[in-house]
Amino acid sequence: MSYEPCEKYTDSALRFGDEDHYPERIVGEFLGEVVSNDWVNGEYKHMILKVHARALDSYAGQFFHLLCPSPDGAEVYMRRPMSIYRIDKAASQIEFLYKCEGRGTRGMGMLKEGDDFNLAGPLGKGFTLDPKWKNIVVLGRGVGLATLAPLSQLAAEKGVGITAILSARNPGVVMSKDLFEGFGATTIPVLDTDGTSDVANVEKILNGLIDEGKADAFFTCGSNRLLSLMKKVGKARGVPGQVAMEQIMVCGFGACYVCMRTFEIDGEKTLKRVCRDGPVFNMQEAVGW
């Protein structure tokens, strides 16, 4: 399933409980209510929002455009794109995992339980799962793993086996291990501190999974190095793949062309908009961030 991005948002944001007033709307602007916004470790926070039912019509790999509050009194003019971490339809909640780094995410980190948070979406084209695939491999680093979490949730719901390779600088910042294991995934942390994140070792792991019949498709996000590795192994071993691209955006629905990236299709270089043509793309066509 995929959605066409809207050309403009609603004039006023929809709140939780307004579902019956706009039955035709798929993409829109919403006011979510902060349920929690807690630190996961010294760098990352996990936000849970109570949202309008239309915001729950989100597909793995899509994103929301967030109107972050100011952390310092100066206006934060542009929205921040952020991939969905988890969808809980029963509780009418969506979740984001994010790193407090720039002004937008630092402002986002200041939100408290009960605060309103303006978000627009869901936007973009997400992941697809071929019904023939019985086992997939997801490989991500840092907050890039947040994008791969709803894909793993989708795979689990379809009875697809998952191996999640979790790359990080050290054990303290390995992200989402419990969440992936909750979806039934086999998790393999690879770390800079012990050298297991070295490209040669990760390549050995990928080839081993292919040999064991546990890699019908590859998925990645969060690292050019890992993207290049998966492209190389996938091309050599005939394993298809998809990558969720990360990119600065302004409008979020394809009008401004700020998020253009280069792709190579049949030997020809071409430009695509990450927000509208993606953010998920054929791995073999992606040149990198």
Description:
It is a single chain. The protein has 289 residues and is an alpha/beta fold. 20% of the residues lie in helices and 32% in strands. The chain has 2 domains: 110 residues, Translation factors (Elongation Factor Tu (Ef-tu), domain 3), CATH 2.40.30; 117 residues, Rossmann fold. Strands 1, 2, 3, 4, 5, 6, 7 and 8 form an 8-stranded mixed beta sheet that branches. It has a 6-stranded mixed beta sheet with strand order 11-10-9-12-13-16, sandwiched between helices. A two-stranded antiparallel ribbon has the order 14-15. Strand 2 and strand 3 form a beta hairpin. The N terminus is likely disordered.
Which terms would index this structure?
about 290 residues, 6 helices, Elongation Factor Tu (Ef-tu), domain 3, Rossmann fold, alpha/beta, six-stranded mixed beta sheet, globular, eight-stranded mixed beta sheet
Task: Supply the CATH superfamily name of the largest domain.
Answer: Nucleotide-binding domain of ferredoxin-NADP reductase (FNR) module
Q: How does the helix and strand content classify structurally?
A: alpha/beta
- The span between the termini is 26 Å
What is the CATH first-level class name of the largest domain?
Answer: Alpha Beta
| Overall radius of gyration | 19 Å
Number of strands: 16
CATH architecture of the largest domain: 3-Layer(aba) Sandwich
Residues in β-strands, percent: 25-35%
What is the H/E order? EEEEEEEHEEHEHEHEHEEEHE
What's the average pLDDT? 88
Question: Which ranges are low-confidence, i.e. pLDDT below 50, for 5 or more consecutive residues?
Answer: 1-12, 14-25
> What helical percentage do the residues reach?
10-25%
Q: Based on CA inertia axes, which overall geometry fits?
A: globular
- Describe the sheet with the most strands: 8 strands, mixed
Tally of structural domains? 2
Could you please say which CATH topology of the largest domain applies here?
Rossmann fold
How many helices? 6
